[in-house]
Here is the input.
Amino acid sequence: MHYAICESNNENSPYQVLSFTSLASMKDCKYVDQHSMVYSDKEPRQLIDNWKQEELESTWLSILLNSKKAHQRFVTDLTTYRNMKNKFQNKEIAAQKLHEVVLFCVKPWKKENQMNDTDAPYATTIHVDQFNNKAQKTEKEVRPRFEKTAKIVPLMVDPPIRSGTNRYRNMQVVMGCTTVAEAMEKLRALDPSPGGGVDIKIAVKAGAIKLEE
Here is the structure.
């Protein structure tokens, strides 16, 4: 079995964890790219060999902070991590902890699901039109809202998530701004893949910034 930790197409979660029966099958998955963490087998040896401890920890932390189920399942590990000043004792432990989260969160990748996502715009339009009122209500409940005048106070030098991704870039932008209004303006101007309020939400949850009214 092969695993890939990829950027997510869900704006409320920076990563998704997928499993593949072979490396060849990964070639058809649009989510696996040069920034994905790819490894095989039941042992996290490849994680230890190919990534830095900081990268393993930041990926592990980001998944836990943005997945309610994973957070509840590994809350003891998260508490221990916090008590150790946000650092595991060594890379081996970091890799093992990340691997445990991967096994908990992983979903088998199916090519037909990806095709349905990209090749059926008409069906999606009908669904959205049919349930438009419900969708708008849900969007208002889910989309994070912040006071534009709230001040952004960075709590770290660098984003605590894996570098080289759009999420990392967006968090850098947020951490470099002084107010929510400034951050929103700069996030929306990004090209490609503009950001938004969810990036501020992720930065807060990751402990990278705090907001002051």
Strands lie at 2-7, 15-20, 37-40, 107-108, 151-154, 209-212. Residues 117 and 124 are 9 Å apart (CA to CA). The mean pLDDT is 81.
